[in-house]
Amino acid sequence: MTSIGSTGSHGAAQSGFATLLYKELLRFWKVSFQTIAAPVLTALLYLLIFSHVLESRVTVFNGQVRYTAFLVPGLVMMAVLQNSFANASSSLIQSKITGNLIFVLLPPLSPLVMYGAYVLGAMVRGLVVGLGVFAVTLGFVPALIDLAHPLWAAAFALLGSAILATLGLIAGIWADKFDELAAFQNFLIMPLTFLSGVFYSIHTLPPFWQVLSHFNPFFYMIDGFRYGFFGLSDVPPGRSLALVAAAALVLALAALTMLARGWKLRH
Questions:
Q1: Which of 40, 54, 179, 267 is the most buried (most CB within 10 A)?
Q2: What is the DSSP secondary structure assignment for residue 117, as one 8-state letter?
């Protein structure tokens, strides 16, 4: 009897995970023009404007990489991070406000199942948008199709999307209305993203700001991802990977604890 019950419980968990994940994927895919095409267009506009204005004025990696080429990995990773966060956070806050979160909480879904479905769904959106940005920017720098270290790039893309998806989940749990979620995004996510080296190498900054940049976890995601493209980085990629992995683990534990306690969800 114990074996049968255990098997049934395992099957229910798998079914619950698949159903919740399908909901999360369908949620952004049904409005893909807004959730995928619009961020890709935004990144393309950034590339057109910054490359046109700064191509001949900014030198990166001692002139070994053109500024336009340098910009592409940063824009790809920025799109991955921002859309991973947006998917998880908006899904949860929308469910809380409309009242349909009860349909997620009533089934016997474990915190791990809920965490996995929300985070994986957000990661898929972030990575799909990132691939879209990469595809359209290849028209400007075709040589980028040949990455120096594709596995390093993939590792940072996966970890970065997981971290921002988890942050989105935490923000969605914490916020009770869209205004609070917007504050979380505007005062934390956006500044950390734009000050992470997307548009510049930190070696172009004054010493004080260089030091400050090393306290920004987003910087290590961008810099490590860029290493996968060029084999060049501001920080050794092994160090960046260790710090990013540690951040992913800490945030995952925090999110799982919040889900297990039902904080601001069940009470």
A1: 40
A2: H
- Burial degree of 142 (CB within 10 A; 0-12, 13-18, 19+): exposed
Q: Take residue 159 and report the two structure tokens written for it.
A: 């970890």
- Determine the Cα angle at 96 with ends 95 and 99, to 5°: 80
Residue 11's Cα: distance from chain center in Å? 30
- Cα separation, 96 vs 107, in Å, equals 16
Among 17, 74, 88, which residue's Cα sits nearest to residue 193? 74
CB 36 within 8 A of CB 129: yes
Count, residues in the chain: 267
Which DSSP state fits 185? I
pTM of the model: 0.91
Two tokens, residue 69: 């080429």
Inter-residue contact 69 to 145 (CB < 8 Å): no
Report pLDDT digits (tens) over 16-39: 899 999 999 999 999 999 999 999
Q: Which residue's structure tokens are 């005062």?
A: 187
- Count Cβ atoms below 10 Å from residue 143 Cβ, excluding itself: 9
Q: Which amino acid is at 65?
A: V
